[in-house]
Amino acid sequence: MSIAWYLSVSAxxxxxxxxxxxxxxxxxxxxxxxxxxxxGANLALIAFSRMWGNGDGQIFAIVVMTVAACEVCIxxxxxxxxxxxxxxxxxxxxxxxxx
Amino acid sequence: xxxxxxxIAAIGVIAGAIGVVTLSNPFYAVLSLVGHLLSLAVxxxxxxxxxxxxxxxxxxxxxxxxxxxxxxxxxxxxQQSLRSTLARRSRSRGADGRRPTGVLFAGALxxxxxxxxxxxxxxxxxxSGAPYAPGSRTFGTPAYIGNLLLxxxxxxxxxxxxxxxxxAVGGVVLARRxxxxxxxxxxxxxxLAIPRPLGTGTMAEAVEGPSLAYAHAGVAEAGSPxxxxxxxxxxxx
Lengths: 99, 237
Prior knowledge:
The complex is a heterodimer. The longest helix of chain A is centred in the last third of the chain and has 29 residues, at about 55-85. Chain A has helices at about 5-25, 25-50, 55-85. By secondary structure, chain A is mostly helical. Chain B has helices at about 1-20, 25-45, 50-90, 95-120, 125, 140-150, 155-175, 205-215. The radius of gyration of chain B is 33 Å and the shape is elongated. At the A-B interface, helix 1, helix 2 and helix 3 of A face helix 1, helix 2, helix 3, helix 4 and helix 5 of B.
């Protein structure tokens, strides 16, 4: 398969994730959709890494996975803290910082 | 063979992604994301990224998804009832006007990305990649990745470990219970009124004998000359 097929799949995953981030009101699902976008970027990185036969893209993908794990840790901690304070778990309702 | 595997995995990846976005129950969305990640690991294997595929399955589909499932189980039960009540309220604030706009923007982004990728006319994108010879230390194997991580990307490796430490501390600080213990737990004891178990050789037992001490232990009258072990009014022995 040519590299272009993999890049197309990665673009499709990224855009599906973007739709989820823009549409869903639940912050848990927004985090899941952020994972989708990061995975699309990872697939593109690894496809380019394969294209040039160079391992730098794979290292980059591993670092992206680590950053995603950190982001999940912080994001889920925030969701648990919101749940403890009996606030609604809904980004349309949590608008105190909106000015 | 690799074309068939690519199409099966690509359909799994895209179906999993659509499932994450469309399923209304967060628990099913997480399970759909697990399917997506496993299919994505197959795509990584097809791109000769063996170590990244293994890390994807172990780290993402294993550890991170377990964390998600725990949080969904902790938060999710009240989620459903909350959603039905909040759906009506947020609709009146123009949130439903935002949803079609989001789909529109994402569709425009997809068209733009596909034009940029497929219409670029680059020769290398059309090929199937650099020449590859299987071996124990070639491109994508754990030995190759480990060699790169510990030589050329050592600084990245160390900074990433620091980032993981900060994230762990931040997760604990964010999700901890605030305000300490419940106040009803704190009981004031007089200095000598520590509750003592029976039959452990206290002074009251020595004076009155163990049977008397047992008899007084539960009664604890106010004017009684003998000290029972549990009342703690005087403790003068």
